[in-house]
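Complex 493.
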Amino acid sequence: MAKSQYPEALARLIQEFTRLPGIGPKSAQRLAFHVLRMEERDVLALATALADAKRRIGRCSVCYNLADTQPCHICGDPQRDRTVLCVVEEANDLIAMEKARTFGGLYHVLEGALSPLEGVGPEALRLPELVKRVKGGEFREVILATNPTVEGEATAMYIARLLRPLGVRLTRIARGVPVGGDLEYADEVTLARALEGRRDV
Amino acid sequence: MVNYKVDGLVLKARPFGEADRILTILDPRLGKVEAVAKGARRVKSSLRGACQPFSHNQFFLWQGRSLDGISQCEVVESFSCLRDDLPRMAAASYVAEFVDDVVRERDPSPETYELVLDTFRWLAEAEPTKANVTHILRAFDLRFLALAGFAPSLDACAGCGQPLAAWAGTGQVAFSAAAGGVICPACRAGTALGGEEGTAPAGETPGNWPDTSRLDAAQPGLPCRAGPPVILLSPGTLASMRHLAQADSARARVLRLTPRAAQEMGQALRAHITYCLDRRLKSLDFLDSVLG
Ligand SMILES: [Zn+2]
Ligand SMILES: [Zn+2]
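Predicted structure with zinc ion bound:
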């Protein structure tokens, strides 16, 4: 292999940046040069933040949200409605729901979705934990808020199968025309779904 | 920039990058085509709904340097019920994974396309009971294996080529995935093909070789090095397999498949397919868990 044109420490930094998603060699080089131009204390703050996040953030032992406390701030909040549970695929879906500020119940993060083609089966998800929570909890309703993708739909159907015997009310988030979208540009599948999910006004 | 049209079935739509999907499309004239649908995971994308697995769409593609891209898409037949029902979804996933594994890119096979389309339609029309789904998938297995050049030998010994009539009595016949079909007693005794005899005991997933203590054969994607077991087929099962292997879709549907035949041929074909592909299809576990 040809000797690197970069000093060793710089080559290593570029190498580390290329591990990040969406970062190719060109972007990695640009980021590394940027770091070299930064103030030393800013670089240290960045390094500490990286290490801290990795060290301190884990999964909430109740809902599997990303958390730095046990349980997480949502599970530990006495103001939340403990009778409604919203099931999502990933922690970032939970964050998106929280940003909408309309849901005041608790969450359950599955840490993924069923994907038979990729070999992601039920055992890879937090499903036994979900069943246990619903069995032992005081939930009146479980909202299935997995993504409207094949994987998300399959996951919702699978969960419905698991939870139906427990007698809890099961609901699925509505699917339809996105806000700000034009009917004209909506695809056939979305339109069909939107029509199915219509309601009285 | 060259533009062209693809008219085919979406076998796979895996997420790619921030908001894109890479689609694997089966077109009758072009064969298997991979293309990127930019932004297809964004809520407002017009490609989003149409880029769903198992749907039959017309795509307009632009030629890219490494990967072609989808500029427009129109749904021909959405097959949404293959995504809205667990057994159907699991079965369609199995078909898609199997075809994707065997068919090479840009290697046209109109027959394979017709078979997959027909299988999707059959899955969509039939009540998704375990018996129906099993029937549909076994018919698919046998016809697809024949198209792919992996047909198991069902009329003659896979070892010595002696016709079945010359050595098979009225009882059960041994099927060896390692040999590639049914085998006569002499070949079975003479070679060490496939260890233990047996229809796998109840509760054991067929396709997991019982004698693999070192290698976790249940792990999808791993090649199975240990020999598959010999499976015993009753004459009725063998007759059903021959019927399905040669039947067109109309004739495949009228066959009455007994639970026993379905069970035996399921085991034999699973072993055979796993041996041919040198890996266990990942969607099998999900299919088993859904069909129960
Ligand atoms: Zn929590
Ligand atoms: Zn022989």
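The first strand of chain B starts at residue 3 and ends at 16.
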